[in-house]
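Structure (tokenized):
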């Protein structure tokens, strides 16, 4: 781990799932949910090469990525790429 980093442990929904419940999803101080109190289930599947999000969540994620790095070009058609 990088110096100054910390390890966090999260409980999954069940022993058979990589899903975790989350609220107030933030990226670079940008709220990724419609309102801060919405609960989302995040499903981690390392076999998938993509990030799958509902359209309204994708739009917020794309906005946050552009604010994060000006070399990232995000489309509201569902993809981001590095310039």
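Design, position by position:
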């Amino acid at each position: 781990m990088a110096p100054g980093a910390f390890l966090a442990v999260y409980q999954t929904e069940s022993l058979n799932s990589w899903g975790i419940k989350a609220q107030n999803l933030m990226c670079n101080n940008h709220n990724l949910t419609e309102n801060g109190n919405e609960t989302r289930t995040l499903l981690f599947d390392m076999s998938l090469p993509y990030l799958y999000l509902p359209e309204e969540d994708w739009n917020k994620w794309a906005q946050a990525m552009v604010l994060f790095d000006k070399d990232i070009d995000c489309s509201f058609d569902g993809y981001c790429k590095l310039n």
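Reviewer-requested clarification: The chain has one helix and six strands. The beta strands are 19-23, 26-27, 30-31, 39-43, 72-75, 79-82.
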